[in-house]
Amino acid sequence: MRKLFFAVVALLLFPAWQVAAQDKYPSRPITLIVGYAAGGSGEVVARLVSEFAREKRGAVVTVEFKPGAGATIAADQLARAKPDGYTVSTYSGNPLLAAPHLQKVPYDTLKSFTYMATFFAISNAAYVRTDSPFKSFGDVVAYARANPGKLRWSTAAVRGTSHLATEAAFRKENVQTTMVPFAGGSQALAALLGKHIDLSVSSDYGSYLSAGEVRLLAETGSVKVPGMPEVPTYAELGFPVSITTTYGMFGPAGLPPQVVAWWESLMKEMTASPAYDATAKKMRLTPYYEDSATFTRNVREGYQRFGEAVEAQGLKIK
Predict the structure, then answer these.
(1) Angle at which helices 257-270 and 41-57 cross, to 10°
(2) Domain 125-219: which CATH number of 3.40.30.10, 3.40.190.10, 1.25.40.10, 2.40.280.10
(3) What is the pLDDT of residues 41-75, one digit of tens each?
(4) Would you say the CATH fold of 125-219 matches that of 25-122+245-313?
(5) What are phi and psi of 113, to 5 degrees?
(6) Do 234 and 224 meet the contact criterion of CB atoms below 8 Å apart?
(7) What's the CATH number for 25-122+245-313?
(8) Which of 307, 140, 121, 134 is nearest to 226 (CA)?
(9) Which among 115, 128, 119 is positioned nearest to 193, based on CA atoms?
(10) CA–CA distance from 70 to each of 75, 98, 100, 157, 229 (Å)?
(11) Which of 124, 128, 179, 272 is surrounded by the fewest CB atoms within 10 Å?
(12) What are residue 180's phi and psi, to 5 degrees?
C-alpha cells in the first residue's frame, strides 16, 4: 500500500517538475533578429549582446539578419513570433517610430511588442567623405539649392528616423534632392566611399571617422555626437525633426515577466562591461540604459512625436 501511495504522489508531482524545468529561461538557443544588413552598426551591437549572453549566462544567442524595407520585415517577423522569449530582436526607431506614420505596416507599434531594455543611444549623423567640398550642412543645402535634384544622398533605412528627419530638413530649406535607397547603412556608406552618392545619414560611420575617411556635418538626433561638441544637431540648425533613437532589446507582445527580467538584468550588467565601453567608443554610441517600463513609455512618446511631425510637415516620402 505504501508503494502504491508513493507511486501516485510521484506521478502527481512529475508534471510540476517538468513545468519548472521548462520555465527556466533560457533552456534552448535564442534567435536574435537584426533588421539591417550585415556589416553595419546593427551587427556590431547584436554581436556584443550575443557574446555577452554567452559569456555571462551561458546562453546561446544566434544572430539572424532580416534586412529590407527599413527593418519593417524584421519587425513583422518578430510580431508574429511565439511570445516565449526564444525569438527577440535588437530595437531601433526606424520601423517602430517612423515607418508606421508613412506607410502601411502589418504590426502595431503600441500593441504588437514587448519592450525589454535599451542599452545605447544612437548617433545618426549626416556625413560626407573627407575629400568632399562640403564643410558644413549649410554647404550641402547651398549646393542643393543651386543644383536642384543633383544632390544624391542615402540613409540606413528608407522611411526611417534619419530619412524622415533629413527629408524634413531639406523641405524646410525648400531644396530638391535625390534620395538613393539601400538595404542598410553599410551599403549606403560603401556607396558614399565609392563616390556614388554625396551624403550619407546613418550610425555606421564610427570606424571610418576614426580612420579619417568621413567628416560629420550634423547629428540628426537631439543628443550631441560623443566627443564632438562642434557638430551641430538638427535641432540646433532649426530643423523640425530631431529625435534621438536607441538600441535596445524587444520581443513579441505578451512575453513572460521572467523573460523581461532576464533581459533587463543582462543589459544592465552589460553596460558596465569593458566590451560595452569599447563598442561605445568604436561606434560613437552614447552609453544609455532604460528598464522595460521606461523604454515602453519612451517608445509611446516617441511614436506620438513622430506622428505629430509627419502631420505638421505634410511629409509623404516616396
Answers:
(1) 100
(2) 3.40.190.10
(3) 889 999 999 999 999 999 999 999 999 888 899 99
(4) yes
(5) -135, 160
(6) no
(7) 3.40.190.150
(8) 121
(9) 128
(10) 10, 10, 11, 4, 29
(11) 272
(12) -105, 115
Spatial neighbors of 129 by CB under 8 A, at least 6 apart, are 192, 193, 195, 213, 214, 215
DSSP per residue, 194-234: TTS-SEEEESTTHHHHHTT-EEEEEESSSSPPTT-TTSPBT
Q: What is the pTM of this model?
A: 0.76
Residue 289, CB half-sphere, CA atoms under 13 Å: how many? 13
Q: How many residues does the chain have?
A: 318
The cell for 314 is: 505634410
* pLDDT, tens digit (0-9, with 9 covering 90-100), for 104-124: 999 999 999 999 999 998 888
Q: State the maximum Cα–Cα separation within the chain, in Å, rounded to a whole number.
A: 97
Q: How far apart are CA 257 and CA 272, in angstroms?
A: 23
Look up residue 113 and give its three cell numbers.
511588442
Strand partners, 201: 126, 155
pLDDT in tens, 8-29: 444 444 444 333 334 699 999 9
**Single-letter amino acid code for the residue at 92:** S
274 alpha-carbon distance from chain centroid: 22
Before 26, cis peptide (omega within 30)?
yes
